[in-house]
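Job type: complex structure
Entries:
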Amino acid sequence: MTITDRATLLAHAYAIESEAAERYEELASQMHTSNNHEVGDLFSKLAEIEAKHAAELSLEHGAANVTLAATDYSWGSLESPEVIPFGDVHHLMSPRQALTQALAAERRARDFYEHHAANIPEGDLRTLATEFAAEEAEHVRMVQAWLSRLDSSNDEEREDMDQPMPL
Amino acid sequence: MSTESACPLTARDYKSELKPVWCPGCGDFSVLMAITKAMADVGRRPEEIAVISGIGCSSRVPAYTNCYGFHGVHGRALPLATGLKLSRPDLLVIAAGGDGDGYSIGGNHFLHACRRNVDLTYIVMDNQVYGMTKGQPSPTTPPEWDSALVPGGTGLRPFHPLVIALAAGANFVARSFSGDPANTAQMIVEAIRHPGFSLLEILSPCVTFRPEERDWAKQVHPAAVDETSDRARAARRVLTDDGFNTGILFRGDRAPYQPSVNLEVVSSVDFETEFQP
């Protein structure tokens, strides 16, 4: 699918950010429920960042007012690119594992915009898609910086104090 | 009764304040999201919906919605849902649970719910294991699944819920994957809107006892053929497919069973007196 109009691009952009914010919020809740508060706090922070990004899109471009039918979103994957799939987390995950997942999500979002920017003819729409790609690239660098600051104490999965029956 | 909301409801409007206690990574999180999204799309208000379940991880769903809910005994989601729908046909009734609850102890009820074809939707989160009780094989567990509880596997032929539902008379049969919440939500909407008994089988990985089920994300694929209203053709297809076909597989035209009822209204006070010494 090629994005050919501003409304479709904005709808996709808003969905990317708002769905990512909602997913991080959900994952944070899961982690806190599982007593993995360190990763829960991390996901909460990421949820705030994504929600802020969605709000900016809405403020600057009116993106929240543009919606498509569920079947008109075209991601090329099962979910929007910036969400971490529910199945890709676990309750013992370390901060490094969580940030590695977040990094992959940011890269998918950047790649989504870059792919569309490359397929849009020169003009305002392409400029906007390129701008969104640059913002996601900035997020990629931010998460990379967080990862580089982690010390080895953040690498270990937590010990499971209530292991399931060995299989 | 009006079914349209004055202002559009969102998925959040159907979520309760309770936080799910499923293992992070569990497919049921995604199914819950799809259910609440589908409820918003259907547009019935929370007080017009009842979610009924039995026992098991996925049977906790009623507590996580703010609709009417009944967390019943093991395997009895469908008789509860059937009774409710017959006495309160105005309600949108959804039964939810897992493969152990629905196909083992609840197997008999499953057959007859399909046969009766009461207008309700049954969502089965199939993870092919009893997760809540720590990993026993369920009716849909593959025969070769090797674990400490069943060394060498059960060697038993798995239950095939979709074929059995078709043979028993279900009016709508579909399969989806929890990792595809948008399509799952859409299929729940379709199941709700189709009259009669609708079965939606959702492949929902148990990452704790069946971590290999994470690979389902790579195995599922949309059904290569369009849905059919030919029951025999649908049964042949699902009997011979790889178990990872997703989509609406059968949409029938049986009239739902809904006898006219003229219930005598009994107050709760009168009812309680029946149980007093």
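Summary: The longest strand of chain B covers residues 92-98. The interface with chain A takes residues 19-27, 29-30, 33, 41, 134-135, 147-149, 177-183, 185-186, 205, 207-209, 214, 217 of chain B (CB under 8 Å).
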